[in-house]
Amino acid sequence: MxxxxxxxxxxxxxxxxxxxxxxxxxxxxxxxxxxLGFDLVQTDHKPExxxxxxxxxxxxxxxxxxxxxxxxxSCPKPITANAWLDRHDMSIYFGCxxxxxxxxxxxxxxxxxxxxxxxxxxxxxxYVRDPDGFLLVxxxxxxx
Length: 144
What we know:
CATH architecture of the largest domain: Roll
Structural class: alpha/beta
Shape: globular
Strand order of the largest sheet: 1-4-3-2
InterPro entries: Glyas_Bleomycin-R_OHBP_Dase, Glyas_Fos-R_dOase_dom, VOC_core
Protein name: Catechol 2,3-dioxygenase
Number of strands: 8
GO molecular function, one term: dioxygenase activity
CATH topology of the largest domain: 2,3-Dihydroxybiphenyl 1,2-Dioxygenase, domain 1
Keywords: Dioxygenase, Oxidoreductase
Strand content: 25-35%
Largest sheet: 4 strands, mixed
Number of domains: 2
Number of helices: 3
Helix content: 10-25%
Order of helices and strands: EHEEEHEHEEE
Organism: Pedobacter steynii
Distance between the termini: 35 Å
CATH class of the largest domain: Alpha Beta
């Protein structure tokens, strides 16, 4: 469906915040907040549940992510990590100029990260899995 005959846009979007359902909320919060540097903006905070929220909004440089615990009854955790990774069909791409610096930082913090490489579309990229196996790609045009 095209709106090429109508120059006015019917919807004025101003951002996006993917919602990730995670098996271990505290581990995911620590990964995105403490390792990647996202700010914890809003939660259903209960003081007795440190980092174990029912919902969290994180933000870094205008990028927003939401986290929620994945219900074991509605979607049981796969038996093996490989079974879980094989099910993933979603990844998140972040624009990032300083890939060598990010690679050094992540690898020095024990994250399993591939060395920067050139993609088929002409970007330099590094690939990381978060605690739930979601693929995170940090990339930037190689020509810049």
